[in-house]
Amino acid sequence: MQRLVMAKKFIPSGSMWLVAGAFATLLAACSPEINHRGYYARPGAFSQISEGMAKSEVEGILGSPSTTASVNFQGDSYYYITSTTESRAFLKPVETKREVIAIRFDKSDQVTSFAQYGLEDGRIVNMNDRTTPVAGGELTILQDIFRGILRSSPGVGGPGGGIGLPKT
User: Fold this and answer.
1) Which of 33, 60, 131, 137 has its CA at a distance of 20 to 30 angstroms from the CA of residue 73?
2) Beta bridge pairs of residue 105
3) How is residue 96 annotated by DSSP?
4) Overall average pLDDT of the 93-106 stretch
């Protein structure tokens, strides 16, 4: 009871609602936002696929693929990709679930193999690890600012000094 009296003494009664609203907003900002992207498979659809099935039958069961790959001598491949990400407030989204259904066809458009992969089956592939050097790109913001200050100081900027000094 004494704590409640002390809280009322320091916080006006109208501000209690403001504090409660701010607390509720902070609590809501911490709850994760879940995003589902890509192909959404019907339950049991993958189990209906079998070797020797025609490409048109696969499309009838699973629908259009997320992406395809064609190899002229071996046949096509269909990929059905699903991804679930979770993000909190201003943090970078984290992929929590990934599912890839890969179906390979022969030259006569018959299923030769099919597999289902998860996030644990994947690996990170760096497509291009080379970077193009950019002038000034290796400096931090503070280094760049101080470099500009040093260039504009007298005696450093060439004849006549730096900024604001007349040339002689």
Assistant:
1) 60
2) 111
3) E
4) 90
Give yes or no for a contact between 77 and 103, defined as CB atoms under 8 angstroms apart. yes
Query: Of all helices (H) and strands (E), which one includes residue 35?
Result: strand 33-38
> What is the 3 state secondary structure string of 3-18?
HHHHHHHHCCHHHHHH
4 token code pair: 């409640």
Long-range contacts of residues 94-100, Cβ cutoff 8 Å, at least 24 apart: 95/119, 96/34, 98/122, 99/41
How many Å apart are CA 18 and CA 13, to the nearest integer?
9
CA distance 24 to 29: 9
For residue 83, the cross-strand partners are 37, 98
Share of the chain above pLDDT 90, in %: 21
**Residue the block writes with tokens 């931090």:** 140
pLDDT of residue 112: 93
Token pair 């504090």: residue = 19
Instruction: State the first-to-last Cα distance of the chain, in angstroms, to the nearest integer.
Output: 79
> Would you place residue 11 in the very low, low, confident or very high pLDDT band (cuts 50, 70, 90)?
low
DSSP conformation class of 91: S
Contact by Cβ (8 Å): 62, 80: yes
Residue 87, classed as helix, strand or coil, is: strand
Q: For residue 146, how many C-alpha atoms fall within 13 Å in the half-sphere facing its CB?
A: 5
